[in-house]
Amino acid sequence: MNGRRFVEFLKKLRADAGRPIIVMADKASYHTSGGVRRYAADSHGEVAVKHLPAYSPDLNPDEQVWNHAKARLAKRFVATKEEFKAALFSILLSIQRTPDLILSFFQLPSTPYAAHAI
What we know:
Elements: H1 3-17, E1 21-25, H2 34-42, E2 47-51, H3 61-73, H4 81-96, H5 99-104, H6 112-115
Parallel strand pairs: 1-2
Helix pairs in contact: 1-2, 3-4
């Protein structure tokens, strides 16, 4: 991933949303790059990128996705890298298709900021 690709992602996300978006991101270099900052500024409020504090996985609902996926993956037997990839893809697709589960990731005590945006 790099800043240019992240901007392309933001453009597609904004188009799909059909309304202004706020994206919560960690402080990875591609999230804070000059290109990303310029794109957000030039969007006239249509795209805002807000950053989580460093070293705060408890504030990031994405971490709950990974925790859930790892717990489910631990119950499966995978013998090869290909089986691992297929199992993980299946689990992530299952999460994607379960809106109530996704919403639960935003209901944790440390994520009320995100719950209000839903």
